[in-house]
Structure prediction request, 438 residues.
Amino acid sequence: MKRRRPVVVKFGGATLSDPAAVVRWVSALRSRHPRVVVVLSAREGVTDLLKSIVAKPRQRGNHRRILASIGRLHPGLPRTGAGSLERLRRLVVQVEQAGRADAPLADRLVSQGERLAVHWMVPKLQRAGLPAVAVEADHLGVLTDNEYGASTILLRRSAGPVRRRLGDRLRAGQLPVVTGFIGRSLEGRVTTLGRGGSDYSATALGAMLGASRIELVKRGVSVLTGDPRRIPASQPIPRLSYEEAEELAQFGAKVLHPLTVEPARAAGVEIHVIPIGDPASRTVIGRRPAPVGTTALTLLPAVALLRLRVAGGRQRPGVVAEVSRRLAAEDVNIVTLFTSSTVLNVVLEERRSPAGRAALEPLVHEGQMVLDGPHRVGLLTAIGTGVLKDVARLPPELLASAEGLSATPRSVTLALPTAQAQRALLELHRVLVETERK
Ligand code: ASP
Ligand code: MG
Prediction:
């Protein structure tokens, strides 16, 4: 008989403030699917608190208050969970004594948030009659690179151990409850995957297990036509292709961690992004693109644009390579690039723009280029079929203020001065979503 493919379900930190709703969700899911793997994020706010300890390692009084409030968020921990809290206390003391935390120590400390969430939820699931067992992802064999704080899961190398260990538990009829957000580096230390990384944990596990579906259960959000904090009238999008969702996540849609889509796309597993209180308004991410006429908008509100004019007015072969090589040598990532035959606009993260400018300064001194900026811009991205035509409907004065534009058949990115970018976002949303759908 064909083995039943598991369902992976991840609960975001905010959903854990109603643990009974999470237990109900898992019970209902498991009554339909015998093989379920649960992935949990830390409780809302916990990762921020842990990060603040690392950022201000000397504020002992503050640390005591933080530890007390984290303790209060996880009442009734079983022995293993109390162990995590104890380990957290020891790590905090270690950081205080050293007066700093290097990246691996910081990750070890921050990873306790997810461990606490798992040990806190397992007894609640057990009391509902579910055979829940706590699984810490670093012991499961989730192997990552050594980029502490923002590591990437090595899917090929993790797949064997993960399949074996989770497979054993599923075959034994258990319900594994796995820590999201964490893994183990090639040198054997705890890593974290970057903010919002438990989505990525869930899709990575789903891909490795050949899941039939990955559910990302969140409080109040599916993938919307725009960030609801910026666009109050934003609406849920029922369906997106992997490529569309990836583009959205990379260009700042906070609802998904940027690496979330890739493992699911590679394995061909659908992702369902589901608001816990309103499952019907879910977004399904899979092979089929968004319905024609749907546009999703995202804004990266503040990035830095450096404008390079090629001296002599014509690009020489290799100019783009030269620029990116010099930036890469200083570890400066290019967010996006707009080029014409004479001008190269390089968009960088704002905090890296001084380093980026310094890296390119030699080209100016050698007389090859004229450099101006950094200019503070917002990157507005619109995704969907026919968006190129749609973007052209922006008021002319807004379009004229654009510093750059790049397009593929299904996505357009505009760089606009920050204030105009926010206006253009609301304007486009009004034209494309609010009026179109009436
Ligand atoms: N707890 C982590 C964070 O706050 C991971 C996650 O929420 O997915 O970033
Ligand atoms: Mg979270």
User: Anything to note?
Assistant: The chain has a mean pLDDT of 91.
